[in-house]
Each structure stands twice: as C-alpha cells, then as structure tokens.
Automatic annotation (TrEMBL):
Belongs to the TonB-dependent receptor family. Residues 380-904 form the TonB-dependent receptor-like beta-barrel domain. Signal peptide: none annotated. It is found in: Cell outer membrane. SUPFAM superfamilies: Carboxypeptidase regulatory domain-like, Porins. Keywords: Cell outer membrane, Membrane, TonB box, Transmembrane, Transmembrane beta strand, Transport. This is TonB-linked SusC/RagA family outer membrane protein. It is a multi-pass membrane protein. The lineage of its organism: Bacteria, Pseudomonadati, Bacteroidota, Saprospiria, Saprospirales.
Length: 964
C-alpha cells in the first residue's frame, strides 16, 4: 500500500515553476505551454521524471532510495541533486542533529563528515569551537570556515574579554536547522571567493510545507559529568611526598612552616583535613531543552514559527548558559511569477563565565591546592590561606556575566521573467550585540582596591545585498544547462566600548555608577566592505556528463590599495560511468561516478585594517598628539589557496553499499606574517604576504544498507580522512619561528611541538636525564642539564587521521543511533605538567603517578627523585608531551515510536520517547583530563597545548517528541 508523501517537490522540468504535495500527497499546478516533463523529488526517494500527457490526473509512485544520490544539496546561490554534483559537499540533515543535547550546533556533526574536524576548546559550556576543513590552511589569518545562514554570511568574531574565546554562534539553536551543507573543495566554495579558503558551512533553517498546520513539541532533560578526572594525592600521600622532597632539597624547616600555615592550624600530619579539590571544582551539571514549532501552508503561503529554550549548567562550578530563541520563516506566492519571503531569527544567550585556563581563579586550577587545606571554613566562607588563591573566593564574592543578543534575517523576492529564467533579490542582516559585566568584590583574590567593576559592550552589524539571475532549461531531451550570475555587497561595522571603575562603598554596589574612581575607558570603531560579482555555469549531457565552472571577483576594503580586487575561478567535470551502455545493467556495480575539480579560493580573515598606515591619539606632557601604530603596505592582500580534488563515487548491489574516495592537494600562498622591522623605522613589524603552506590528503566514505527485512533496518556510515600539513616557505629566508613550545619550520607541520627529549631517570642518583640530540659521537647521549639538550621537532598538534562511524538500527518502532569518532597522530603538551607532575618540586598537589618516584639507587622509573625547589625534571620537555589518540562514543540515541493506535486515541500524529547520551565512552591512553581539550588562555601561543583545561562533559538525557 502506497503512503502519501507530504511536501514532495513537483517541478516543471527545465523551469523553477513548481509546487509541493499536500497532506494527502496531492498537488495541482498550471503548466506552461509546451511542457514536456514533471520532476518529482523527496528526501529518501529516487527522483522521478514523468512525461506530460493529455491526461489531467496523475498517480505517481516514488521508489525508496537506498543511497543519498538523489538528495538535494545546497551549493550557494542555488541547489542541485547530489547525483549531478561535481564538487565535494557533505550534507547533514536535521535527523543528524536532532536530539543531540549540546548548546552549540557545530558539535552535532563531529565525526559525521570526512575531512571536517570539529573540536570544542574545552569543557566549558561557552568554550570556543574549532573547525578545520581539510586541515589548517593558515598560520596567522583566520582558520574557521565561512558560515552562511539562509544565504547570509554570519558574523563569527570572538568578542570575549576575559582571555578565553567563546563561540559566537552559540546564539543559533540546533532545533531550528533543517540541513547543513559543508563545501570542502575549491569548486564548491569558489562561488564565495575571498572567504572560502577554509571551507563554507551552509545552514538552511526549517520551512513550512503545504498541508494543515503541524505542531511539534520536543522536551528533554538530563545530567552531565566530566568524561574523566585525573587522580591526585590524598592528604597522607601529599605529606609523605612533600616531607621527602623537603629533606632531599634541604628545605625541611621551610616546608614544615608552610604546611602548618596552609592547613589552617589543623593536624596535617595525621590527615585531619583531606580535601579532594576535584570535588570542589567539578559538579554534576544539568541540561534542559525545549522547543515548539508550528508550520504549514497552502499553495499561496507557507509558514514556520518556532521557539526554543536551553538551560545548561556546566560541569565546572560557576559555569552556566541559558538561551531563548525564536524563528519565523514565511513565503508567499503573490502571482504565478512573483514570490517573496522573510526569514527572521532572534536569540538571547546569558552565560555565567569563569576565568580562562591560565588564571588562578579558574576552578580547575584548584587541583594545585594542597589536600591538607580546607576549601571552606566552618562558617561556610572560603578559606583564604591556601597555597594559591582559592577560586571559591571569586565564586562567592564576584561574578562575570556575558549576554549575547543575536538578530538574523533575510527579506527576499523571486520573479520569474521567462520560463526557466528567474531573478532573485535578497537583503540580509546580522546583528550581534554582546555585553560583558564583571564584578570583583573586595574579598576576591588579587583585589587591591575595595571592589572593581568592568563593563564592556560590542555591537557588530552586517548588511548583505544580493541580486542574481538563474537560468535552468532542458535545451533538448539530453542537454541541460544551469546558469547563475549576480552581484553582492556586504558592509560590516563594529563598535566596542568598555569602562573600568574601582573603590565601591560595599559589595552590595555592583554597577559602574557607584565607583569612586573610573580607572580605564576604551572605545573602538571599525568596519569593512566587500563588493563582488559572481557567476556559475553547469552543463549536463544525457544525465551522465557534467561540466561546471564558476568565478567570483571580490573587492574588499581589507586589502591594500594596489591589490583591492581578486578573481577566484574554479572548474569541475563529472562522468557517471555506470550510465554508459556497456556498464548500465551491471548486476554488481550499480553506480560509478568520476569527478575532477580545480580552483582558487581566498582567505580574507586578516583583520580590518592590516594594509593601512595607522595612528592613534596619545599624550605627551599633558598635551594631546598622535603616534604611528602600524606601517602600511599597499600591496597586502588575501591568502590564496589553490586546490585540486579527484573523486570517485560508487554504488554496489543496487547501491546498498555506496561510498566516495577523494584525493586533494591544497596549497596556500601569500601567508600573512608580521615581518620584523629595524627599530630605527619607528615600528616593530609590517604585515606582508610571505609564506606557503601545503595540505594534501585522502578521504574515504562508505555507506551500507546492511539489513532491510521484515521491519528490521540497519544502516551504517563510515568515514576516514588522512591529512598531511607542511610549511613550504617562511619569511626571512625560511628562518624558524619559535614560540612557546612550538615552532614553524619549513618541512614541518604548522606549530609543531619543539622540545628537548626527556630520557628518563638516572637509576644511580635519581637525576632527570635529557637526550643531547647531537650528531656523530654525541647521538643518543644524555645529560642531567636541560640547557645542554637540543630542542627538536617531536610532535604534531594536529591529527594525521580522523574517522567517524555512525549506525542506525531500527525494529518495530525502536531505533538505536550512535556515532563513534576517533583521532590519531596528534600530540598534546601539558603545560601544567611542570607543576602537577613535578615529583614534589613545590607545594602543588601531584598526580598519583608521582608516588612511583626514584628513592633508592637501582630504582627503575620515569619519575625523578623528589627534591623541593630542585627543578629535577621540571623543565619543558617531552616528559609532558603525550599522544592524544582516542576513540569516543560521541553520541547515542535510543528512541521508541509509540504505536499508531495510541496516537489516534489521544489525537496525535506521532509520539516518540528517547534517551540520548553524549561522550558516554572514551578509549584512550592519554594521561590528562581529556585528549580533545586545549588551553583557552591564548589560542595563538598554545596550539596543541593544555593547561588546566577542563574535560568534555558526559551527558545523559531523556526526552519526548510529539507531533500533533
């Protein structure tokens, strides 16, 4: 028995004229004179072409598709069938992100797109998101992809003022997203020109469908906990280690005095106080999600109204997020030729912030406190006599609140000029308004004044005006063309202000107007503009040969006066080999397509004024003046990426087994660097385009319809990617650029780890040893002085391999969906290891592995002898460099669809109850908190480093999804 399909798309072939089916699967439309075919498509079914005859009624049955070959893919200023696609594009639907209880939508597609690495900086609810499409494509310019929401490029600039980046796109609720299309290669992304080098993420929000009003309610609630906790010494073990270290270091009297002080007079020798600071810093978090929507429409008007609420309490004490969001999408057909619509979204997000990873008052730094120190006194107030400032003082007597308000919208119209020719005009707007209010009371750490308040506000606005023509037509039965040509103007403005005041009457006064003294004020205003021409042409012959070309000419105020405009071309070809007569009826190979693409892209994320001579006001002897702050470079321009992609798509056994294999080579030239200048020039550096970076790799995707019998269905997807990242050219005759524990060196990956090699412990005396790393006779020799050891490249901060494995298993209303993801080849430097795993070098509490320290001649161990203030093995070295390989069960959903009989009785369309888990299992040998977490205190100087960085949260939740 055939089931009516609601919302199937009916198009008159060769035109943009069409409609969608109603609740009963019916449709009605007026055809143009000479119409030859109807094209019917629906997600999950094979697109069907139906000849137009003299009859007025059609009964059309679509066959279910066992692959994704016929799904519609958004490609920028248009869409196409994946079957005819000559580009590398990953499509994710709302099913991939629904019921995943995370505050940010980016985390929902981790592990689901080959070559797309998605990581959250650490376990804070507001932590920044790092996405790399086919590796890191820049050294100093932006590395994030361009996000486009319903055709509007989104503001994605971090405005955090506490040193730790936040995710500017937290404002977007996952519940309002219909699909996400990720453009990975140059052919697909070149239509975005100077902004496409890091990939493009196209986000399509939900729309209404023709039929009666359909309401949806989805509610879930759950709890969170850290994925992992590192075990530290208890009070007895701590006293044993510190006592031994004080004797070996000749500091016994000093250490005893300090232990007496930090224990608040308690009997530390007998463990009167034994504080687990992990328990003080972490808590059981919680999460509540609720969203409601109403959608529907008729042949004239379709509508979608939705609202969502998210309340997340983080796993770190004092960290929380609350978000309200609403969306309205409307479209109305005024005539058969003219239609217009409005997409409008608003959200407000309130975040309770905590300090960055490098701050003593960051909760996780409490693990450095001695277990013999109480966290709180008997009256409940935080104990202020700890070794380091007690973060609870900041928690109780201060606050830091960030509020993000986001308004996005697009008004658009489409006019059908002729059959197959239409004109689109879009006006998009994106406004991000963020305020940050920090109050630090008189009892907070490092507070020299009687309280301090800092308020800041940042407003960013972006206007996008786009006009383009689209022409699509079947010239003959075998010849189809699709042409797009248009212009786009984008203006963006940023305003930032902040003010700081000190000395308050009491902690009850927490606004700036009560400050006795205004100590600092700042005001910044900046803007940029783009003006672009773009075009794309695609030709399809006989449904099996494809040629596509695109070009974009971008001009931007960011570039130098001599290099203001750039041209970004791309071309691609495709061939469905399986459509050839000699392969068409092959019983095994049901689909085979080859595609090749080549093109150029730009990276314009180089700041707003990097090419200009800049000056600022200053004072001298209480008189105003100006001073130069940046030398200009009229030739400064974008970083250019040239990319070649060779792909093969295949389907076996009637496409029950399908997949893709891609090889790519991406070279980025004109890397932006600050080149040092002589002091006599009056400036320290000048921005120049110098440097070359290569990314090359392979991607593999395999989809399998494993079982589909008697109501039991099992589908699986596996993807894997290998990326090689290598610097080819650097400034100053390829001179090394060394920073922190990293290096940029020709022939090595970006920000490679650069450290002396730790050689273990001398079994005779307990000294830490390091390899000298010399040549000839010195090769392999060791020394107990790190100053005699040569640094060398010892690790890559980026993984060599990434992979994801997703399964969907269903039987009689019960569905299990889960995704494993993994990374291999990356190394993480634990910047906090010199304090946490330092064999009793100072008063910091130590990881339990330090109990295995050297104590007697002949001991074989990697932990040196405990020597207080001895610096024995605490130098930066590979002792604190760890492989970050892992496999993680990223998400799991178990759902049950209630029987139709139950839904009919209560008047519902369908009801589903579900259980969801995030990060339930992690398989790794990584010794720290989490192999994915990184230091958030200085992103540029801590690539591949952790420093008291919070682990990801493990979340379990239950929910109900109701349609009526």
């Amino acid at each position: 028995m055939a089931i009516p399909l609601i919302g199937a798309t009916i198009l008159e072939a060769g035109t943009s004229s069409g409609t969608v089916t109603d609740i009963d699967g019916g449709f009605a439309m007026t055809l143009s004179e000479g119409a030859k075919q109807l094209r019917i498509s629906y997600t999950g079914f094979i697109t069907k072409n139906v000849p137009v005859t003299n009859v007025t009624s059609y009964e059309i049955i679509l066959a279910e598709s066992s692959s994704t070959l016929d799904e519609v893919v958004v490609i920028g200023y248009g869409s196409t069938s994946k079957r005819f696609l000559t580009d590398n594009v990953v499509k994710l639907s709302s099913e991939d992100i629904d019921k995943v209880p995370v505050a940010n939508f980016q985390s929902t597609f981790a592990g689901k797109a080959a070559g797309v690495r998605v990581t959250q900086t650490n376990g804070k609810v507001d932590a920044g998101i790092n996405i790399r499409v086919r590796g890191a494509s820049s050294v100093s310019a932006g590395s994030q992809p361009l996000y486009v929401l319903d055709g509007v490029p989104l503001i994605n600039q971090n405005e955090s003022q506490n040193g730790a980046p936040t995710n500017p796109l937290l404002s977007l609720s996952p519940s309002e997203i219909e699909s996400i299309d990720i453009l990975k290669d140059a052919s697909s992304a070149a239509i975005y020109g100077a902004r496409g080098a890091n990939g493009v993420v196209l986000i399509t929000t939900k729309r209404g469908k023709i039929g009666k009003a359909r309401m949806n309610l989805n509610v879930s609630t759950g709890t969170s906990s850290p994925t992992n906790l590192v075990e530290f010494l208890n009070a007895e073990e701590y006293v044993e280690l510190l006592t031994e270290a004080s004797v070996n270091g000749g500091e016994e009297a000093r250490v005893i005095r300090t232990l007496d002080a930090i224990s608040n007079g308690t009997d530390w020798r007998n463990g009167e106080v034994d504080t687990d600071w992990n328990d003080e810093a972490f808590r059981s978090g919680s999460q509540t999600n609720a969203n409601f929507s109403v959608s529907g429409g008729d042949e004239k008007t379709i509508y979608y109204f939705g609202g969502a609420y998210n309340d997340t309490e983080g796993i770190l004490l004092g960290n929380a997020l609350e978000r309200f969001s609403a969306r309205t999408n409307l479209k109305h057909n005024f005539t058969d030729r003219f239609s217009a619509g409005l997409n409008l979204g608003y959200s407000t997000t309130t975040i309770d912030r905590i300090a960055n990873d490098n701050a003593f008052v960051n909760p996780i730094q409490a693990i450095a406190q001695a277990p013999i120190s109480p966290a709180r006194l008997a009256d409940g107030t935080p104990y202020a006599g700890t070794v380091y400032p007690n973060f609870l003082l900041e928690l109780d007597f201060g606050n830091y609140v960030t509020k993000l308000r986001r308004l996005t919208g697009k008004a658009y119209g489409q006019y059908k000029i002729l059959d197959g020719l239409s004109f689109n005009t879009d006006f998009g707007y994106d406004m991000s308004y963020q305020t940050e209010d920090q109050f630090r009371g008189s009892r907070t750490p490092f507070q020299a004044t009687n309280g301090q308040v800092r308020n800041s506000n940042s407003v960013q606005e972006s206007y996008v005006f786009t006009n383009y023509l689209t022409y699509e037509r079947d010239l003959t039965e075998k010849h189809n063309i699709n042409l797009v040509a248009g212009t786009e103007f984008n203006q963006a403005d940023r305003f930032f202000n902040s003010v700081t005041g000190n000395e308050f009457p009491s902690d009850d006064f927490q606004t700036i107007n009560s400050a006795a003294e205004i100590t600092e004020g700042l005001g910044v205003r900046s803007s940029y503009a783009f003006f672009s021409y773009f075009g794309r042409a695609q030709y399809v012959y006989d449904g099996r040969y494809f040629v596509k070309g695109s070009i974009r000419r971008d001009g931007s105020s960011r570039f130098g006066a001599n290099s203001r405009y750039g041209i970004f071309p791309a071309g691609s070809i495709g061939w469905i080999v399986s459509q050839e007569p000699w392969l068409q009826n092959n019983p095994t190979l049901s689909f085979l397509k080859l595609r090749l693409s080549y093109g150029q892209l730009g990276n314009s994320e180089i700041g707003n004024f990097p090419s200009l001579f800049l000056f600022q006001g200053t004072s001298y002897n209480q008189r105003s003046g100006i001073q130069p702050t940046q030398p200009g470079n009229n030739d400064l321009t974008w970083e250019t990426s040239t990319q070649l992609d060779l792909g093969l798509e295949f389907g076996l056994l009637d496409s029950r087994l399908s997949g893709e294999i891609d090889f790519y080579n991406k070279r980025t030239e004109g890397l932006l660097f600050e080149v040092p200048l002589p002091g006599s020039s009056g400036a320290t550096a000048i921005n120049q385009n110098i440097g070359i970076l290569d990314n090359r790799g392979v991607e593999f995707v395999l989809n399998a319809d494993l079982i589909n019998s008697d109501g039991f269905v099992w589908n699986a997807n596996f993807n894997a990617a290998r990326n090689f990242n290598e610097l080819v050219e650097l400034p100053n005759n390829n001179a090394d650029v060394i920073f922190s524990q990293n290096i940029n060196r020709v022939g090595e990956p970006i920000s490679a780890h650069y450290l002396p090699e730790y050689a273990g412990v001398d079994p005779e005396n307990g000294d830490a040893l390091y390899f000298i790393n010399g040549d000839g006779e010195d090769a392999g020799e060791t020394t107990n002085s790190v100053n005699e050891a040569n640094r060398k490249v010892v690790g890559n901060p980026f993984p060599d391999w990434t992979a994801g494995f997703t399964n969907t298993i269903s039987y009689r209303g019960v569905t299990l969906n889960f995704t494993f993801m993994g990374e291999w080849g990356a190394s993480v430097y634990n910047g906090g290891g010199r304090f946490q795993s330092a064999n009793g070098d100072f008063y910091d509490n130590q990881t339990v592995d330090q109990l295995n320290r050297w104590q007697n001649p002949g001991d074989i161990t990697d932990v040196p002898e405990a020597r207080f203030f001895g610096g024995n093995g605490t130098a930066n070295s590979t002792r604190y460099l760890d492989r970050a390989d892992f496999i993680r069960l990223r998400n799991l959903t178990l759902s049950y669809d209630l029987p139709r009989l139950f839904n009919d009785k209560v008047g519902l369309s369908d009801t589903q109850i579900y259980f969801t888990g995030i990060n339930l299992l992690t398989f790794t040998d990584f010794p720290g908190y989490d192999p994915e977490s990184r230091n958030d205190s200085n992103d540029d100087l801590s690539t591949g480093q952790s420093f008291y960085s919070a682990p990801a949260a493990k979340t379990v939740s239950v929910g109900i999804n109701v349609n009526f």
